[in-house]
Automatic annotation (TrEMBL):
<keyword id="KW-0472">Membrane</keyword>
<dbReference type="GO" id="GO:0020037">
    <property type="term" value="F:heme binding"/>
</dbReference>
<dbReference type="InterPro" id="IPR023234">
    <property type="entry name" value="NarG-like_domain"/>
</dbReference>
<dbReference type="GO" id="GO:0009055">
    <property type="term" value="F:electron transfer activity"/>
</dbReference>
<keyword id="KW-0249">Electron transport</keyword>
<keyword id="KW-0813">Transport</keyword>
<dbReference type="GO" id="GO:0008940">
    <property type="term" value="F:nitrate reductase activity"/>
</dbReference>
<dbReference type="Pfam" id="PF02665">
    <property type="entry name" value="Nitrate_red_gam"/>
</dbReference>
<feature type="transmembrane region" description="Helical">
    <location>
        <begin position="175"/>
        <end position="195"/>
    </location>
</feature>
<keyword id="KW-1133">Transmembrane helix</keyword>
<keyword id="KW-0560">Oxidoreductase</keyword>
<keyword id="KW-1003">Cell membrane</keyword>
<dbReference type="GO" id="GO:0019645">
    <property type="term" value="P:anaerobic electron transport chain"/>
</dbReference>
<feature type="transmembrane region" description="Helical">
    <location>
        <begin position="127"/>
        <end position="144"/>
    </location>
</feature>
<dbReference type="InterPro" id="IPR051936">
    <property type="entry name" value="Heme-iron_electron_transfer"/>
</dbReference>
<keyword id="KW-0812">Transmembrane</keyword>
<dbReference type="InterPro" id="IPR047660">
    <property type="entry name" value="DsrM"/>
</dbReference>
Length: 339
C-alpha cells in the first residue's frame, strides 16, 4: 500500500519540480501525446487479442433457474438462453452492476446460539455496489464536463450538465457535487482494502496503485478549482492548442496543473495493461456474453482441429511383439506365438 502511495507522490513531485524548472512542454505537451498514443494502441491491442481468443467451452455465469420444463419458471435475466436475454443481462451489468448488486458476504460467527459453536453465515452486502456505482457515474460526469476545455463553443448539453451538477450552489466558484462524491467513493474503496484484513491479504501493488492514482487526480483537480486556483481561460487555450496539434506556451498556469495532467497521462498509459481495462473487457467475457443453451445448441470447441487418431487395433498391430513379451493381454496373438 505505502509503496504505491510513494510512487504516486514521486510522480507528482517530479511533475511539480519539472514544471517549476521550465520543463512544462515535457509534462504538458510531450507526455500527454505519448499517453494518448499508448492508450489507443494498447486498447486496440487488448480488444483484438480478446476478439481472436478462442472460447473452448460454453461457460456463462448463471444465477437462477435455467430453461427447463415448461412449468418451471426460468430466470431469463440471470440465466438467459436467448440472444435477447443476453442483451438484457449485459445492459443491467454495464449500467447498473447487477452482479455486484447480488453480492453477498460470508463470515464465521463464533458462539452462534443455533449451532452452539462457530457457524458460517451469509448476508447481503450492498455497500460495495453503492460506492462502485457512485464512483463510476460521478467519474463519467466529470469526464463529460471536462469536454468544455476541448470544444469551443461549449455545447449546450455540457452547460446543462454543469448546471445540474452544481444546482445546489455552495461557495464561489460553484461546488460540483460529482467532484466531492467521487473522492468519497474512492476513499471508501481504499479503506475497504486497508481495513478488511482478508482483502488486504490478497491485495497487491496493482490493486492500490490505481486507487492512489485516481485519488491524486481527483485531489489535484479539486485543489485547482477551489484552493490553488489557476486561470481557467489560460488552461483552455493551452488544452485547445494540444487538441489542434498547435501547442502554445504555458503562461499563467501554475505547476499544480501539470501535476494533474501528468497523473492523468500516467493513468492513460497504465490503463490498457491493468485491471482497469475491465471497462471494455466485460463485452468480451464469455461468462457474460454467452447464452446458457448448451443443452439445445452444441458448442464447437475451436481448439479442436481435425486430428489423425491412433485406434487401439492400430496400436496393437504396431506394438504387439513388445506387448506379448511384457505379458499384456492381446486381442490377437503374435504369429510366431500362434505357430
Amino acid at each position: 500500500m505505502f509503496s504505491s502511495l510513494l510512487l504516486v507522490l514521486l510522480i507528482g513531485a517530479i511533475a511539480w519540480a519539472g514544471a517549476s524548472a521550465g520543463l512544462a512542454p515535457l509534462f504538458g505537451v510531450a507526455l500527454p501525446y505519448v499517453a494518448v498514443v499508448v492508450f489507443i494502441a494498447g486498447m486496440v491491442w487488448r480488444m483484438v487479442y480478446w476478439a481472436k481468443s478462442p472460447v473452448p467451452f460454453c461457460i456463462p455465469t448463471t444465477g437462477g433457474q435455467e430453461q427447463s420444463l415448461d412449468f418451471i419458471k426460468q430466470n431469463k435475466i440471470d440465466c438467459p438462453s436467448t440472444t435477447w436475454g443476453v442483451v438484457k443481462r449485459m445492459f443491467l451489468e454495464v449500467f447498473f452492476f447487477r452482479s455486484l448488486f447480488r453480492n453477498s458476504l460470508a463470515d464465521v460467527r463464533e458462539n452462534d446460539p443455533i449451532s452452539n459453536g462457530p457457524r458460517s453465515v451469509y448476508y447481503s452486502s450492498k455497500w460495495l455496489w453503492c460506492f462502485a456505482l457512485l464512483f463510476h457515474y460521478c467519474f463519467l460526469l466529470i469526464f463529460i464536463r471536462h469536454f468544455r476545455f476541448f470544444i469551443e463553443p461549449v455545447p449546450s448539453c455540457i452547460t446543462f450538465l454543469e448546471s445540474i451538477d452544481g444546482i445546489m450552489q455552495v461557495g464561489s466558484p460553484r461546488f460540483y457535487w460529482t467532484g466531492g462524491l467521487v473522492l468519497v467513493a474512492l476513499l471508501f474503496l481504499l479503506c475497504r482494502r486497508i481495513f478488511n484484513h482478508r482483502l488486504r491479504y490478497l491485495s497487491l501493488l496493482n490493486d492500490y496503485f490505481p486507487l492512489w492514482l485516481l485519488i491524486g487526480i481527483v485531489g489535484t483537480g479539486l485543489c485547482l478549482r477551489y484552493f490553488d486556483k489557476t486561470e481557467i481561460a489560460e488552461v483552455k487555450i493551452f488544452v485547445m492548442g494540444l487538441t489542434h496539434f498547435a501547442p502554445v506556451a504555458a503562461t499563467g498556469i501554475n505547476a499544480l496543473f501539470f501535476v494533474h495532467l501528468t497523473l492523468v497521462s500516467v493513468l492513460l498509459i497504465y490503463f490498457p495493461f491493468s485491471k482497469l481495462v475491465h471497462m471494455p473487457g466485460v463485452f468480451f467475457s464469455p461468462t457474460r456474453n454467452q447464452a446458457n443453451n448448451s443443452r439445445r445448441v452444441r458448442h464447437i470447441n475451436p481448439w479442436n482441429p481435425p486430428k489423425q487418431y491412433f485406434t487401439y487395433p492400430e496400436y496393437e498391430d504396431t506394438y504387439r511383439e513388445a506387448m506379448a513379451e511384457a505379458g499384456l493381454p492381446l486381442d490377437k496373438q503374435p504369429e510366431k506365438a500362434a505357430e
